[in-house]
Design a protein that fits this description.
The complex is a heterodimer. Chain A is mainly beta. In chain A, the strands form 12 sheets. In chain A, strands 1, 2, 3, 4, 5, 6, 7, 8, 9, 10, 11, 12 and 13 form a 13-stranded mixed β-sheet that branches. A 13-stranded mixed β-sheet of chain A has the order 23-33-32-35-36-40-39-42-43-47-46-49-50, covered by helices on one side. A 4-stranded antiparallel β-sheet of chain A has the order 16-15-18-19, with no helix packed on it. In chain B, helix 9 packs across helix 11. Chain B is an all-alpha fold. Chain B is built from 11 helices and no strands. Classes of the chains: A mainly beta, B mainly alpha. The interface between A and B is large, with 52 and 59 residues.
């Protein structure tokens, strides 16, 4: 029967008006897919090798970087060098988390420290106080073993994070509310004077506050106004006690502490003194030059996660140019010497041993070489006011993006109105220059080799269109985490950067945060305040995110309120609970993207809130991201709470990554583990070789494995060892790598007129036509060049492509240790 | 064949992709992401990440096989064919809540009413049902994209026949004819799905 058109039309009108709900892809997904497809269209599809490397690189660098950031910025060890300085009895201060701690000067003792930078951190010893002048707005006095940071992100909106100790804060005039955050709650000061102490008494933490005058309140729902002269006691954000002045309540604690993990307890008289090493040095000057009046020696010890390197600056005034440093921990150290008018002198692999006398060092100072260049924006216009520095001459593992002045002791310059810069004294060696400026994403130069005394005529650094990450930080009960310190750390999958670049910000009263001016790339985002109070085995949850140029990406920490909460238990193979292990979830089918990580607690418990239903691969490790192995897959259903038990594997796979010629270990090499499945070998974990080139992969379940070593130092080619069979009862197996030197390949892509093609995709196909990626993108830079190292000797096909051009390729045979330059000309597609 | 022009455009897009033209990705997504996303959504369920994964896999598989697209069907139909295979695979691994499940739970009387969409006026209470919304979405995602687009323009965006004709550079008669075919196709698929309760494959 023919349908009645009129009834159908009426029904359609009503159906579309009342029962039509379009379903559209999210803009974030669209942007990510677009990028994926662009890469897929522009070159050959990545083979398993490429995927494997990308997964490994992202996870290797990601988790390690995140936890490195956490340890450096707020981890328990962050207190260590401060304690040494405080032992001299004088308050210490630093400008921002990446700055170097220094004792305050006599002037600052007398008249106070001026808050001249957006962020100031301060620590005071037991019997000394420090004053901070807050411009014309007020002042702050830190007392009683206090530890705090002061953030002044906008005029008038002051945020003080008080970790321990006590402060007196005075505000001369009303304005935007000031906030003092502690682990137990926050105080909002509208005007007047207030005393706040953060205590730990008999194992219980509390915040005490007494308003002397003016108006202030405990931040909460409801907001509790304080009464002048009355003391309040706050725990867990709640008002516990409100009483009048009670002389029985100590005004300051005998030992104040909140988050004291990592603070060294005084050692008993019976404790043996630790073995230490000594360093003696002398400056060797160029002919006819006199030693400088003042010079700085910065020490950086090589550590393996979970330990981290922390710069330890010492200032010397010795007309003979000699210095002596005692009390150093034995190990491998980097030493930087900086003096005005000279390039930074450095040595990176100095072994300091205890006993047997001090290690002698001769720091040969040299005026170095001047290097000139230009900083431009994404559209090619000159950028004024950009800070340009050599990452290799900066004695730090961490470099924040939001610099408003070059870090202390670095070789740096600021660009002028034409975008031009000149670094006058640059060490003769390899350099990677970084440029930053507010409002733009950071940019880097190509590696520059000054070892032959031949600086390039000009270095171009193109800043990126900035992206941003924004979201909300919440505690596990869903309450906003005001004052949480959020870090977005750029992942270096090239292993070429000497420093880690990151952006950071403190969350506002509603827990909102936004980190601006991020260059595009892979990042890990974490709340470094998380886990700080839970002891040395705690760690924050970490999320990986891809930042696009010009795009604001939403990331909530620990996640949105939607989804499933996974409450898990991690057990050893003998059913023992495993505490202090890193548990990482990777959504299946996403090739290593969007993973989350946390650390198991007592009883092996761990949890992941806000998971999307689906299948997740579960990885377990215990070296803060330096090492982890695939355990199983979990199917997370669409329910509010899902419980699961993970049994970790029993076997440990160990070995060394060695230089085949010398037998020396290759530190920092990345070991990628793959397990055989019905679909072939799939990524199953990774490890990083120690300073001696030794690696270990723990918790391996039974299976057939193969491992690949990716050297990150020198020019060694990668190597794969297969046929590793692990049984259910095996506890240990050993495999070593002997790596042979690889080649360096410099690919220059140009158009038919010889002009460099920027942003061309370059693909490398080995002799078996397997695509190998050397970085997540493998695209040419502003000079149309891509430089890769560690290319295995043999036949390679290099293919370049870019829109508006026809793809082109070249084939070449590489031999060990050579550095080969190839040029690929792309004909126009018009 | 009314598809003729569309297929020619699809073949041009195929060639741009095969030539390695990066900008072709933008065109591919602007024309095919939303229809494919809806197609997968109504078959796989509410798991956003699962849908995104499958849509991404479909596009990546399409890139790999693009030289096999010969233009005899539309690119949309071809993409949906790839997606169907992947959906079957996903269903074997997990069982998300899908239209199939929703329809299993549907009231038989509702289904009977819905199956008469071309002949009987739909009661108000039926329009408020979740399964009705799901059926509308699933039906639209099953139609040729040209039909779905025409119906949305007419009944959601409220465009007149002349406006649709103008925006497409076609005559009004051609658009009326297109709408007639689209309405008939909608009714037939809608009825089929309502009767079959999860006959989507």
């Amino acid at each position: 029967m023919k349908p009645a058109a009129s009834v159908l039309e009426v029904n359609l009108e009503r159906l579309f008006a009342r029962a039509y709900a379009p379903v559209l892809a999210s803009p974030t997904f669209r942007a990510r897919l677009l990028r994926t497809l662009e890469l897929g269209i522009a070159g050959p599809k990545p083979g398993r090798q490429a995927v494997r490397w990308r997964v490994a690189a992202a996870m290797v660098v990601g988790l390690g970087t995140a936890l490195l950031a956490w340890r450096l910025l707020h981890g328990p060890d962050a207190v260590g060098s401060v304690e040494n300085l405080l032992a001299a009895g004088r308050p210490v201060v630093r400008e921002g988390p990446a700055g170097a701690w220094r004792p305050i000067s006599d002037d600052e003792i007398r008249s106070g420290i001026e808050l001249g930078r957006p962020t100031l951190e301060l620590a005071t010893p037991r019997d000394s106080t420090a004053q901070v002048r807050l411009g014309s707005a007020g002042r702050l006095e830190a007392q009683a073993e206090s530890r705090l940071s002061i953030d002044s992100p906008a005029q008038g909106a002051l945020v003080v994070a008080l970790e321990r100790g006590a402060i007196a804060l005075e505000r001369y005039a009303a304005g935007e509310t000031w906030r003092v955050s502690t682990s137990e709650g926050s105080i909002l000061l509208d005007r007047g004077a207030i005393e706040i102490a953060c205590l730990e008494l008999r194992g219980s933490r509390e915040m005490r506050a007494r308003l002397r005058s003016g108006a202030a309140a405990i931040d909460g729902d409801p907001r509790t106004e304080l009464v002048p002269g009355r003391e309040v006691l706050v725990q867990g954000g709640m008002l516990v006690v409100d009483r009048g002045l009670d002389p029985s309540v100590p005004q300051l604690p005998e030992r104040s502490s909140a988050g004291t993990t990592g603070v060294s307890e005084p050692q008993g008289s019976g404790t043996a003194a630790p073995a230490t090493a000594s360093l003696r040095g002398s400056l060797v000057m160029p002919a006819e030059a006199k030693p400088p009046d003042l010079f700085t020696v910065v020490l950086l010890r090589r550590e393996r996660l979970p330990e981290v390197s922390r710069p330890d600056p010492r200032i010397f005034r010795d007309t003979q140019g000699s210095f002596a440093i005692d009390g150093l921990r034995p190990g491998t150290w980097s030493v930087f010497v900086r003096a005005d008018g000279f390039a930074v002198w450095q040595t990176r692999d100095l072994e300091l041993r205890s006993g047997g006398g001090a290690t002698e060092l001769r720091a040969v100072l040299d005026t170095g070489l001047a290097i000139r260049g230009r900083v431009i924006d994404p559209d090619g216009r000159p950028v004024e006011g950009a800070i340009v520095l050599s990452e290799d001459d900066t004695p730090s593992q961490l470099l924040p993006l939001g610099l408003d002045a070059p870090p202390q002791g670095s070789a740096a310059a600021t660009s002028d109105s034409e975008g031009a810069f000149e670094i006058a004294h640059l060490r003769r060696g390899r350099h990677l220059l970084r440029a930053t400026r507010a409002g733009l994403g950071a940019g880097w130069s190509e590696p520059i080799d000054l070892s032959k005394g031949d600086p390039p005529e000009s270095v171009a650094i193109r800043l990126a269109r900035p992206g941003a990450v924004e979201g909300q930080v919440a505690r596990d009960d869903g309450a906003p985490w005001s004052g949480a310190f959020v870090v977005a750390s750029l992942l270096d999958t090239t292993f070429e950067h000497a420093c880690m670049t990151y952006g950071h910000v403190a969350a506002d009263a509603e827990g909102r945060f936004a980190i601006e001016d991020l260059p595009p790339g892979l990042y890990v985002v974490l709340n470094v305040s998380e886990g700080r109070d839970q002891g040395p085995t705690a760690s924050p949850r970490v999320q990986q995110v891809h930042i696009e140029a010009g795009v604001r990406t939403r990331v909530d920490l620990p996640g949105g309120s939607q989804g499933t909460t996974l409450e898990g238990t991690l057990l050893a193979s003998d059913a023992r609970p495993l505490a202090g292990c890193d548990v990482t979830l990777v959504p299946k089918r996403r090739q290593g993207a969007d993973w989350k990580s946390t650390r198991s607690r007592e009883g092996g418990r761990f949890d992941f809130p806000s998971l999307s239903p689906g299948t997740y691969a579960v990885y377990v490790g215990e070296s803060l991201g330096a090492e982890f192995a695939l355990q199983c897959e979990i199917e997370v259903p669409a329910v509010p709470v899902f419980r699961s038990t993970v049994r970790a594997g029993l076997c440990a796979l160990r070995g060394g990554v060695l230089d085949a010629r010398s037998g020396a270990g290759l530190p920092g090499s990345v070991i990628v583990l793959e397990v055989q499945t019905d679909a072939g070998f799939v990524f199953a974990g990774k490890s990083v070789a120690s300073g001696e080139g030794l690696y270990v992969l723990r918790f391996l379940p039974a299976g057939s494995y193969r491992i690949t070593a990716y050297p990150t130092t020198g020019r060694f080619g990668l190597e794969t060892v297969g046929g590793i069979e692990i049984g259910a009862s095996d506890t240990e197996t050993v495999r070593d790598f002997s790596l042979h030197p690889g080649a360096v390949l410099v690919v220059r892509v140009a158009d038919s007129t010889g002009k460099p093609v920027v942003g061309a995709s370059v693909r490398f196909l080995d002799a078996n036509d397997l695509a190998v990626a050397f970085s997540p993108d493998d695209v040419t830079d502003a000079s149309g060049t891509l430089r890769v190292q560690g290319v295995k000797p043999g036949r390679w096909t290099v293919r370049a492509s870019r829109e508006r051009f026809k793809p082109a390729s070249t084939t070449l045979d590489l031999v060990a240790e050579e550095e080969r330059a190839v040029e690929i000309i792309l004909p126009s597609s018009d | 064949m009314f598809h003729e022009g569309l297929h020619t455009r699809d073949i041009v897009l195929r060639d741009r992709i095969l030539a390695g033209e990066r900008a072709a990705a933008e065109v591919l997504l602007s024309e095919h992401l939303d229809p494919l996303y809806q197609f997968v959504h109504w078959r796989l369920g509410d798991d956003v990440h699962g849908v995104e994964d499958l849509v991404q896999d479909t596009f990546l598989a399409a890139l790999q096989k693009m030289d096999g697209f010969d233009g005899r069907s539309s690119l949309h139909t071809w993409l949906c064919g790839i997606a169907k295979n992947k959906i079957r695979g996903a269903r074997r691994i997990r069982a998300p809540r899908s239209l199939q499940d929703a329809l299993e739970e549907a009231d038989p009387e509702i289904d009977r009413i819905l199956a008469e969409v071309a002949r009987e006026p739909l009661p108000d209470h039926v329009l408020e049902r979740k399964e009705t919304r799901e059926l509308v979405g699933a039906t639209l995602s099953s139609l040729p994209s040209e039909y779905a687009r025409a119906l949305v323009e007419k009944y959601v965006e409220g465009l007149s026949v002349s406006q649709i004709a103008k925006s497409r550079g076609k005559g009004e008669k051609a658009v009326e004819s297109l709408l007639t075919r689209a309405r008939t196709a909608f009714a037939r698929v809608f009825e089929l799905l309502a009767k079959k309760r999860g006959g989507l494959e």
